[in-house]
Amino acid sequence: MQYLEQLFRVLREAGLVESVRGAKGGYLLARDPSEISVGDVLRAVEGPISPVECVDTGEDGECCERQQSCLTRQAWLRLRDSMVETLDSITLSELCSPASQARASAPGAGPFQEPPSATAPKGNRQ
User: Fold this and answer.
1) Rounded to 5 degrees, what are φ and ψ at 45?
2) How many CA atoms lie within 13 A of 1 on its CB side?
3) I need a labelling partner for 11 at 20 to 30 A (CA). Which of 2, 49, 51, 122 fits?
């Protein structure tokens, strides 16, 4: 439980959740799920989104003595920018919608279907 408390403290400090005290207390999203991106959550919990340390600030500051001659730095910068763009474009609302759509549709229609029953005959499992 201590880990969850630490995690929620970080999310609260980032303005992503609010705490509610009392018998029916807990945590609520501080904003609408459509306004919170996966990138927001990852930055709050893990820090900068970056494939390698030398490009984690987003600035062109000095990261090491080989920065000017580094053959891979541009590739790392492009990868970082793509990761940030993708993670910032996915909202919590979007993450939840495939699950609700799958539950509402016919069995086997979505990625969140239940596994085949362990009691079903082997030839009838899907």
Assistant:
1) -85, -40
2) 0
3) 51
